[in-house]
Write a structure and sequence with these properties.
Oligomer: single chain
Bound molecules: S-adenosylmethionine
Shape: globular
Radius of gyration: 17 Å
Order of helices and strands: HHHEHEHEEHEHHHEE
Low-confidence stretches: none
Number of helices: 9
CATH architecture: 3-Layer(aba) Sandwich
CATH class: Alpha Beta
Largest sheet: 7 strands, mixed
Helix content: 40-55%
CATH topology: Rossmann fold
Length: 219
């Protein structure tokens, strides 16, 4: 996984904006809008990449804001953001239990190799009543739109990716990972860990979804 993001890190932001027509910026803002805010928050932005969402979160003026990612190259793009950045794996969060009020993951959870373990770690480091807010690609419910979107992912995204970043392989992976990812499975995994699903919202043009869940039980 690190290798994939190493390849695309340099042009990641621009490629993303081109592929989404700039909507990725709006989607991250929607994620921040959907979270429960409180004063003096401690926030972890996991799989933060170049810190696009971390920057949005910093506008909430939290007491503590940490961006974490496995890829040094992606983290190198995180500049001029009022946050601390760490290189670490989602499945080994080096924080004490009950450290954060909020954990955000934007376009990252789909790529986690040890997703269940990473979500378990999120549960551990969240405070009681803490929230996990996930933004992830999803397939449109409408069959016609889904077929068109799958075609776009398989055939156009790798070409656009190659033009923008010089390599099509990471973008072939991107398409495959979206097609095989299920928001319903993610929700089940969260529930199994003791999270209580709070909100689910599909974002226009219905190719990504926000899921928020609260830590309610003790495991
Ligand atoms: C598509 S990027 C998303 C970056 C950013 N959150 C955004 O909104 O653009 C996915 C990120 O997840 C990171 N990642 C993948 N697996 C990870 C893991 N197990 N732990 C932490 N970060 C991971 C990658 O390095 C990459 O930076």
């Amino acid at each position: 996984m690190e290798q994939i993001f190493k390849k695309v890190a340099k042009r990641y932001r621009v490629t993303n904006h081109i592929l989404s027509g700039g909507l990725d910026i709006v989607w991250r803002k929607r994620l921040v809008k959907s979270i429960s805010k409180k004063p003096k928050m401690a926030i972890l932005d996991l799989a933060c990449g170049g810190g696009e969402l971390t920057r949005e979160l910093s506008k909430l003026k939290p007491e503590k804001l940490i961006g974490a990612d496995i890829s040094k190259e992606m983290l190198n793009n995180a500049r001029n953001i009022d946050a601390d950045f760490l290189q670490l794996y989602g499945n080994e969060l080096l924080f004490p239990d009950n450290s954060f009020d909020l954990i955000t993951i934007a376009f990252g959870v789909r790529n986690f190799e040890a997703r269940q373990k990473s979500l378990k770690e999120c549960f551990r480091v969240l405070r009681q009543d803490g929230e996990i807010a996930i933004l992830e690609f999803s397939l449109p419910k409408n069959r016609f739109l889904r077929t068109i979107y799958k075609f776009h992912l398989k055939h156009f995204v790798p070409i656009i990716g190659r033009i923008c970043s010089g390599s099509s392989a990471p973008y072939r992976y991107l398409g495959c990972s979206i097609i095989h990812f299920s928001i319903d499975n993610l929700k089940s995994e969260l529930s199994e860990l003791g999270f209580k699903i709070d909100k689910q919202k599909s974002l226009f043009p219905y190719i990504c979804t926000i899921v928020t869940a609260k830590k309610c039980g003790i495991r």
